[in-house]
Write a structure and sequence with these properties.
- There is one protein chain.
- By secondary structure, the chain is an alpha+beta fold.
- The chain contains 14 helices and 22 strands.
- The longest helix has 30 residues.
- The protein starts with a helix and ends with a strand.
- The relative contact order is 0.08.
Length: about 450
C-alpha cells in the first residue's frame, strides 16, 4: 500500500517533500489511513477537522479523537463547528452539499492564512465510482462523468488509487484505531443509497463491474480532454470578456454544431440551466432585450450578441455629491475636476471622456446618480429636449449598458450623461468666464 501510495503521488505529480500540507481528518478509516501514510513522508502537515453538528455526542467524540490523534503525531489541529442544517435551509441545498461547501470554504481559508501549499483529503476509488453514479442523476455534461480528479486546484487526493477494501486492510495490518460514522449506513443520504443499494446490484450482474467502471471513467476522462480542447477553441472565437461582462457573438456561434452542446458549455460557468440553453438555441439571434437569469448571472439578448453580467444589488437610488472645491472622485466613477479661466485661446476638447462646462451655470453640490425613466435632457447641438430613454435607443445601447450609465445633475437638471453627451444648456459660450473640466478615467 505504501509503495503504491508513493507511486501514485509521483505519477500524478501531486506534491513534493517541500510542500506544506493541510489534511482533512474526520477520524474515519480513510483519513486515519491517509495521515498514517503521510507521516511516513518528510512533509510538514497539520490536521483540519470539521464538526457539522449533525450527530450530537458522536460528532463531539470524533472531534476529541482527532485532537488526540494530532497530539500523537505532534502536529497542529485546526477545528471548526458549523451550523450545517441552518446553512442548508438558508441556501436551498441538501445537507450533504451544505457540508461540502462549508468544509472546502473553511479549508481554503485555513490554507491561505497559514501558508499551506495544498489541502489533502482522503477520497478513494470507491468514492469515484459513487460520484459517477450520482452525477448520472444530474445535469453535469461529460465533465461530471469523468470522476474525482487526483488534483483540482489546491485540493489533492493521494488515495484515489485505493479501494475501500484496500484501506480497510491497511487499517487492520497497522492496527490503527478510527471512528465509525453511523450515518454512513443511512440510505436517506444519496451517496449511501448508491453505495449500499445501487452498486451492489450492478456487481450482482457483473462481479467485475467496479473494475470495468473505473476503466470507463478513465476513457471518459481522456475523451473529455479532447472535448474541452474543442470547446476552448470555440470559446476564444466567440466570447469576449470586458471586466465582469461577458459577450458572446451569436453570428459566429450559429455556425457551430451541435449548437446546444456549445451553448451549454459556454454558459455553464454562469449557472444557466438546460431549459435556458434549449430556449437560447432556438432564438440565437432574436429581438433585443430578452432576458434570462441564473442564480448568479443575467443574460440579455442584444441583436447579434448575448451579454452576460453578474447579478448585483441595485444602486439606482445611490447619490454621490460633488462639492465646489472637490478635485477628484473615485466612486462610482473615477473622475478629476479642475476649474480654468476661459478666453478665446482656450482649447475645447471633443473627447467623450471629457466634459467642458460653463462653471457659472452650475449649482453646487452636483449630484451623480443612475438615470431615471422619464428624464429629459437637451443634447449638445440640439434645440429641443429628448428623453434619455429615446437617446439610448437611438444610440443602440443594450439593457446592461443603459443600466450601467451614470448622469451628472445640477439643480436636478441633467448636465452630462457620463462618457456620452453633455447637455446643451451647460455648454461653453462666448459669455463663459470659467470652465469646469471633468475627465473620467485616467487623466492623461
Amino acid at each position: 500500500m505504501y509503495n503504491r501510495f508513493l507511486e501514485f503521488i509521483r505519477h500524478e505529480s501531486l506534491f513534493s517533500s517541500s510542500h506544506r500540507l493541510l489534511v482533512g481528518v474526520s477520524g474515519g478509516s480513510d483519513s486515519v489511513a491517509l495521515v498514517h501514510l503521510l507521516n511516513r513522508l518528510n512533509n510538514d502537515f497539520a490536521f483540519a477537522h470539521c464538526n457539522f453538528n449533525l450527530r450530537g455526542e458522536e460528532a463531539d467524540s470524533d472531534e476529541q479523537f482527532v485532537i488526540k490523534l494530532a497530539e500523537e503525531y505532534g502536529v497542529p489541529c485546526f477545528r471548526s463547528s458549523f451550523p450545517t442544517c441552518e446553512y442548508a435551509a438558508e441556501n436551498g441545498v441538501s445537507v450533504e452539499m451544505a457540508a461540502r461547501e462549508l468544509r472546502y470554504r473553511w479549508f481554503e481559508q485555513i490554507r491561505e492564512d497559514n501558508k499551506f501549499d495544498y489541502i489533502v483529503v482522503g477520497h478513494h476509488l470507491d468514492d469515484v465510482l459513487e460520484t459517477f453514479m450520482l452525477n448520472l442523476t444530474r445535469e453535469t455534461g461529460i465533465r461530471g462523468l469523468t470522476g474525482i480528479k487526483p488534483k483540482a486546484g489546491k485540493v489533492i487526493r493521494p488515495l484515489l488509487f485505493a479501494t475501500r477494501k484496500d484501506i480497510e486492510n491497511y487499517i487492520e495490518e497497522n492496527d490503527l484505531n478510527f471512528c465509525t460514522d453511523r450515518t454512513n449506513a443511512d440510505t436517506a443520504y444519496k451517496r449511501n443509497a448508491v453505495r449500499h443499494n445501487i452498486l451492489p446490484l450492478f456487481e450482482k450482474l457483473n462481479p467485475a463491474f467496479k473494475k470495468n467502471l473505473q476503466q470507463t471513467i478513465q476513457y471518459l476522462w481522456q475523451t473529455e480532454q479532447v472535448y474541452s480542447s474543442k470547446i476552448e477553441e470555440v470559446r476564444k472565437k466567440v466570447v469576449l470578456i470586458e471586466g465582469d461582462w461577458v459577450k458572446i457573438d451569436t453570428l459566429k456561434l450559429k455556425h457551430y454544431s451541435p449548437l446546444v452542446t456549445y451553448i451549454f458549455e459556454l454558459l455553464r460557468p454562469y449557472g444557466f440551466n438546460s431549459e435556458v440553453v434549449e430556449t437560447l438555441s432556438q432564438l440565437l439571434i432574436g429581438d433585443s432585450g430578452q432576458q434570462f437569469f441564473s442564480s448568479t448571472h443575467r443574460l440579455v439578448s442584444n441583436r447579434d450578441e448575448w451579454i452576460i453580467t453578474p447579478l448585483k444589488e441595485t444602486d439606482s437610488q445611490q447619490l454621490f455629491y460633488i462639492g465646489i472645491d472637490d478635485s477628484e472622485l473615485n466612486v462610482p466613477v473615477k473622475m478629476t475636476l479642475q476649474v480654468d479661466d476661459y478666453d478665446n485661446n482656450y482649447v475645447i476638447e471633443k473627447k467623450t471622456s471629457v466634459a467642458m462646462l460653463d462653471f457659472d451655470k452650475l449649482s453646487f453640490p452636483l449630484v451623480l446618480r443612475k438615470w431615471h425613466k422619464g428624464e429629459y435632457f437637451k443634447p449638445l447641438g440640439m434645440s429641443g429636449f429628448k428623453k434619455l430613454s429615446d437617446f439610448f435607443i437611438d444610440e443602440k445601447y443594450s439593457i446592461p449598458e443603459k443600466e450601467n450609465i451614470w448622469i451628472l445633475l445640477s439643480d436636478n437638471k441633467v448636465v452630462w450623461i457620463i462618457g456620452k453627451r453633455i447637455d446643451d444648456r451647460f455648454k461653453i459660450t462666448a459669455e463663459t468666464e470659467k470652465v469646469l473640466r471633468i475627465t473620467i478615467g485616467n487623466n492623461d
